[in-house]
């Protein structure tokens, strides 16, 4: 890898392409080690650029067999080849380029370009993988119509797929056959896809709103044919939803999904031929948990929604990545909210954002939602681009309201259909549709870091006024020394003593929503701003940032009584939950202080009382389940400048035990009341009951009474669905019942050893086991026949889960886990740089650890930095070093 250059690419250097393309003809002659790719491309000089520029094509790890222009073979003196480019200095203004290259898919372990997964061939081209297939201007603003011929052995690869419609097929000699695919829509190379293998299909159809029938096909390896129903149902629901909510209709006559086992990400939106990580498409009640069912629903929808937000309208350059990803995540979040429980979906999304994205935004790889430079774009498929990007779109939707937002999105799709555009184009459509001025709002795209709001309330009884003073400040991040005030929508309500929302009349400060409404969106623009509410006849409890109206941290200095009031009465489901989280954080922080002073930590009885109240509050099972969960260790860690890892773990466990003891009767009752009978259904209502039951049971398991342990064992042995089996397995494996844990693990392995996705869960349960022998076990499991460092799902299940979700062990003061992670990352970097550079994340977060751990973590980073690294890992390690 020493040949790679680590140049920084800047947004400000963007120039339009020197050449445009009319048509691309590709011919693939597939063979594991010697695949030939012949391309015929018609180029025209782009009038926007200077005459006389050379033709510069990207190409990585290609063996050039021949190159010709307008039928004339070029001699070696007529072009230059570097590690990353083919340059032809002298070309006419219009010409046909033909190249013939050879590639080696079977040795492609990066899972980028054309590679093998099990016995099939598949591709992954986003972001810059097409250049590993053939020489090409591999940038999203070069769009073209593709015709692709796939040739392969008929017995080994009976199924040959690519983008668009199949237009011709036939037999060749030597038992080979071919299919020609034509994609009528211009597309950038990153949306190209090809699949060849011995696959089976589940078929269905969808009739679009204009009455066209679309063939729907899910292609899988034969053993997975029984696991496609849920993805198919999700696809149809997503197609319908996009018609109803966005007015978007599907455009081709066929929509295909292929499941592959080896995949770097969740899934990929290639035009008409989505390729999915099998974990995001395959599910059957006995093999997949409710969480997996919901994830599949969300990811299938996400990739489908990309057909408009991403494919029909794509990105001009990779700095604009959030243009398609942020918008599409927002669309899939709303879809999932509509299909399930809206408040619960919001709670889950915010919990993830606040835990992981906030940490990213405060760490050494912090970057804006639109970055202005990068070395390796693969490093920017981040929570910031996706999740914070989605929060920005959500803020826009809230600022505009549903009708204007729809008008804005219609305008965006109509104006830019078939184009490769920028964030400005998206915001421009929203601004034109609504008349709103987004100039200050644009800073959300350029400024990294999580804004912090400090709010204080003052009640003037004589004047019947309530004043909120809001200050905003964004802490400096490693990438940006200076921060400016943002335009932040702060949705508020005021609760009276009876818990009802008071009508809001604002006399100072800008807001949207009508005077007299029960909630208003305050427009915070200044570093400090005052908002005055009139006719307030008693001191209210403010409910701030309802629905998490902006991705910020908020400090109000709530009293315990105020939080209890919100937790009981807030009409905003999200804030009701969040009040409970705030109460729990205060209680757990107090315990951490006691722990660190050498005292025995005790849980504040006010929290226990509040939790007790939840059982009598008539909450639906979905919300009750969320509200019963203490904040996780990672989110608790976020509450400290220097993370007391051991104290957090110990105190949270003590708190869970205390709750289990004090609320024993309620927990038992809830477990009993939420046993489902009848066939498994992945419906929100049933999912909520299973979740509530399993959460209560896991509280009870902290006490390890024989009857409770026996109940877990029974559930484990008799469950007819993976949700219950997995919950019981986790309860047993994470308990101190070593023998039962061992027996359950063995029986589970026996039952599922041939199912790769279920074995992933078996690895995860053990990787997250909070026992002191965890590292030794993880190392031993790396030798298990079902484990492979080459398979990203396995790496994520065992190693990522250990390093991210087993915090006490990962941060063990002996530093052995840091060393372990560094070793794995170094080994992996030679095979799959994208996975290596993502895996290293927990080691880069040393700033929040104590001096001793900081030093141990930095030493491992130094050791990695000294090696010969991929661009991906180089960039991350450079940023993370002190
Ligand atoms: N574009 C894909 C998505 O978010 C993600 C992806 C990126 C997949 C890069 C593979 C490689 O839907
Ligand atoms: Zn996406």
Automatic annotation (TrEMBL):
GO terms in the biological process aspect are:
proteolysis
Q: Which NCBIfam families match?
A: pepN_proteo
**Which intervals hold domain Aminopeptidase N-like N-terminal?**
25-191
The EC designation for this entry is 3.4.11.2
Domain (Peptidase M1 membrane alanine aminopeptidase) ranges: 231-444
Every copy of the Peptidase M1 alanyl aminopeptidase Ig-like fold domain together lies at 449-555
Which residue numbers delimit the Peptidase M1 alanyl aminopeptidase C-terminal domain?
561-881
UniProt-listed CDD domains: M1_APN (cd09600)
Please indicate if the UniProt record lists Zinc as a keyword: yes
What is the recorded function of this protein according to its Swiss-Prot or TrEMBL entry?
Aminopeptidase N is involved in the degradation of intracellular peptides generated by protein breakdown during normal growth as well as in response to nutrient starvation.
Alphabetically ordered keywords of this record: Aminopeptidase, Hydrolase, Metal-binding, Metalloprotease, Protease, Zinc
Gene3D superfamilies to which the protein is assigned, alphabetical: 2.60.40.1840, 3.30.2010.30, Neutral Protease Domain 2, Peptidase M1, alanyl aminopeptidase, C-terminal domain, tricorn interacting facor f3 domain
Tell me what reaction this enzyme catalyses: Release of an N-terminal amino acid, Xaa-|-Yaa- from a peptide, amide or arylamide. Xaa is preferably Ala, but may be most amino acids including Pro (slow action). When a terminal hydrophobic residue is followed by a prolyl residue, the two may be released as an intact Xaa-Pro dipeptide
Q: Which family does it belong to?
A: Belongs to the peptidase M1 family.
Q: What is the lineage of its organism?
A: Bacteria, Pseudomonadati, Pseudomonadota, Gammaproteobacteria, Oceanospirillales
Checking InterPro entries in the record gives:
Aminopeptidase_N-like_N, Aminopeptidase_N-like_N_sf, PepN_Ig-like_sf, Peptidase_M1, Peptidase_M1_dom, Peptidase_M1_pepN, Peptidase_M1_pepN_C, Peptidase_M1_pepN_C_sf
The identity of this protein, by name, is Aminopeptidase N
